[in-house]
Amino acid sequence: MKQISNHLIMIQPNHFGFNEETAINNYYQKNEKRMSEAQIKKAARVEFNELIRKMKEKKINVKIFSDRKHVITTDSVFPNNWMTLHEEGKVILYPMFSDNRRKERRNDIIKDYLKENFQINEIIDLSEWEKREKFLEGTGSMVLDRQNKICFAAVSKRTSKSILKEFCKKLNYKLFTFTANQTCKDNRVPIYHTNVMMSIGEKFALICIKSIDDPKEKSEIIRLLNQPKREIIEVNESQIENFVGNILEVQNLEKQNFIIMSTRAFEYLNKKQRNKLECYGEIIHSDLNIIEKIGGGSARCMITENFLMKKENVNLKN
Known about the structure:
Layout: E1 8-12, H1 37-57, E2 62-66, E3 83-85, E4 90-93, H2 107-117, E5 122-125, H3 138-141, E6 142-145, E7 150-154, H4 161-171, E8 174-178, E9 181-184, E10 187-190, E11 198-200, E12 204-207, H5 215-226, E13 231-234, H6 237-240, E14 248-251, E15 257-262, H7 263-268, H8 271-278, E16 282-286, H9 289-295, E17 304-305
Parallel strand pairs: 1-2, 4-5, 7-8, 12-13, 15-16
Antiparallel strand pairs: 1-17, 3-4, 6-7, 9-10, 11-12, 14-15
């Protein structure tokens, strides 16, 4: 199984804004009072377009969809939460914590793009769990070691053990759950998404070990990450608060590896950490300050990896 993808999907944000429903347990979100809604939307589009420009400059294949005109989705710039696409030909749709984010699931992307161009054997819709008030927000909730078929998940209100077990059964993954916390107003509170505090590449794993308070869980996750002889790059809590953990390794069409992150994350890496990452891929960073501040997510959250097999004689167009 491939760990990194050379086909990516992103959503251009036209309705981007502060979501009060998600801010309940996403402590990275900050409401920007000094800017109008129109200014925030414009700034988010500028940030998105600049990241896309830098990715395409490096010949990274990105399929871009725009927000639908009449469906208001403030967080659609984070499509990795509602859909994952797997080498086995499986498309999985996920139950979302916030009621107003459930509108982000888009049949048009599946029907008009994925089914037309890629081999799909099964669509697994887990969104029925929403009726039971249980949630699993894609590769926000889970960080997947695809090569060794291990699903890492920090349990929170966004990440249900019951749904994780169903996911792992359907995809034949081993499951490792743990609790990851951050300090907020002098209290230790659960980190809302696993992909904020860790990222797994082909030959490295970047992780905030100190966010895991339980010594046994801490020891076990280090053991599991070390099994395939990956280099573990440790970061601290201050760094993950600045989205150092929310990074993604991808591949371009020439099989060159890149690590995508925000400029804020890049600047919070120390020299040693930066040098280690650059051993595994060229770093692409771009200013995502408004998207990070208002949305509480960063570069990794903005990307859905497409591992589906392309149909024969299909010429993909961006």
